[in-house]
């Protein structure tokens, strides 16, 4: 059964690729040129790939290219415990970052022989954002080849040299990369084409026919030196080092926020176009829209209850609301009320298809690209204050300690009495005895009082603290990372300032009840639909990387127990320390522990054979799903439909298990891309901030030490940067060394005068250094410059 499902997904992907890659009916690439010397191997046929995968001679995985060294690429090994190294562009065989590829180990006569790498060159894989090639080559030496028939032959040679097993891409199963890239156009004298240089160095240079270039470029190519364009790769012949492409759009001047943002969205395949008319035709026609009386009759009427939202001050898509009232017996009735998006988004409609394709709203610093039309996400579905709204509710009877005594699921109608920001909620939590005047909160419904809302928030906070404590006692893990936020000019949307977002009690309050609702719904829909439920699985961390992290922690004298998520959390809580830099050591340790972790993924329960595979590692719960954000996440809409069907409040889901799985895989991809776009948007704005307000001074803590560079966490801004020793001004020399197996860099600074001795500075993990962030000549790029130490203590 499992093999059939995997084959289904594999062939679904192949069908996509065959269409895009211009294959013939047998799966062979058409149009391979033979007139010039062949640079790349032709791809295998579909039949050869299928047989090779079944026999274990080939391996399928997702390609990752090192952003700091485009010659290095990796895919996970079959057992997912290590990475397989692909050496050079030719080995990737025209695949791009993120593509699902099939690789083959080349014949032994094509293996490379490299000298054994000395200990000083061996770096700790997994503990820097990008590893040097020496570390990965050493890693490849000690790992056996994929195909068992090859065995471990040739590992030891009399001349102390070892083979590097060479792997090569032989097929592209699915082109995950959009093939659209931002970059600059350069004129080539006496050539019938121009050269497009992508900003992302992992993408090859692209030849663009001069006839396809703007007329202005052909006349005055120098005027385009700082112009940012979008180019789409259309072909990559086997006899060329360069791809071929066509210009798609001129974005504007490099370094300006608007064109740079548009380039990011196009490159990562974010659909930010206007919704087509067929989608808009699915929306209610009569505006202003009101809930039909017959719909209210079908639902639990909660409009008189004290229900409110807690969100960021600028939020306009309000998915969730909370309620809490004390019962005569001392227990509490607590409700989580979620926008009933599935009422408006009917399965199989153009609106549903569009939401499924977009899969998620994308949040950039200055804007949101919504999954749904704004009429829904900001008005009719959004739980705006003082307005009747349709909801799906989970209501519990809880003890003050958070024990569930009773549970109810159902469709409801509610009326939010106030829209609280996180700041409002935090002030209410921090002043439990204070009587707040009405003018310190947003407008409140006349049916309710400030004190009623205040008491509800305090009760929720108290229960949430107990729920949170129980979760971590039960073995949960949370690895917080600093998040950079910006204050923007309302007119220009340029950054005026930035700060590290503080995760406070008000955030924890909301999080605990959203988690509780998601877990409750997961259990309910799985019980009713054991082969159709859409759940969220978090696999355990990669064992090999955990082992390497454990070795590093032992070398650093850190007593860490990596047995489970719970033991990691307990260890982290015990070793942070309480000095002025303890919070930053926590961030560095959290970052280290995040490296072996895998991504949480959506899946359909009908496609996994063992229930153990459903487990969510970080939460340490057997079943988990996403129910609480249907305005901005498509999986939540499917979960709402499953929940409605389980309660006989809606039709049975019109999808098979395989179709749910295909949607789950698509949502996984879109979520990953959305997160990357969000990160790039933040980097873009911080680059502008450094340019406009820099240079910026800050303390920094060393996160990782390599042989010629080291990574730092810039404490004031929460950003991570790599500092290369060769670029440090005033440095006389440097040397990589190990002190009791702990990697260090010894920096020797030139003396201030002839009589003074050179100043030595030791760089090791957790060292605190002074850095300056300064804008580069490349638009919106900046560097971290190490400042000369005032004293030699590190």
TrEMBL record:
GO terms for molecular function: 3'-5'-RNA exonuclease activity; magnesium ion binding; poly(U) RNA binding. The record marks 319 as: Important for catalytic activity. It holds the Pfam family Dis3l2_C_term. Keywords: Cell cycle, Cell division, Cytoplasm, Exonuclease, Hydrolase, Magnesium, Manganese, Metal-binding, Mitosis, Nuclease, RNA-binding. It is found in: Cytoplasm; Cytoplasm, P-body. Mg(2+) binds at residues 311, 320. 3'-5'-exoribonuclease that specifically recognizes RNAs polyuridylated at their 3' end and mediates their degradation. Component of an exosome-independent RNA degradation pathway that mediates degradation of both mRNAs and miRNAs that have been polyuridylated by a terminal uridylyltransferase, such as ZCCHC11/TUT4. Mediates degradation of cytoplasmic mRNAs that have been deadenylated and subsequently uridylated at their 3'. Mediates degradation of uridylated pre-let-7 miRNAs, contributing to the maintenance of embryonic stem (ES) cells. 3'-5'-exoribonuclease that specifically recognizes RNAs polyuridylated at their 3' end and mediates their degradation. Component of an exosome-independent RNA degradation pathway that mediates degradation of both mRNAs and miRNAs that have been polyuridylated by a terminal uridylyltransferase. Essential for correct mitosis, and negatively regulates cell proliferation. Specifically recognizes and binds polyuridylated RNAs via 3 RNA-binding regions (named U-zone 1, U-zone 2 and U-zone 3) that form an open funnel on one face of the catalytic domain, allowing RNA to navigate a path to the active site. Belongs to the RNR ribonuclease family. DIS3L2 subfamily. This is DIS3-like exonuclease 2. It comes from Poecilia latipinna (sailfin molly).
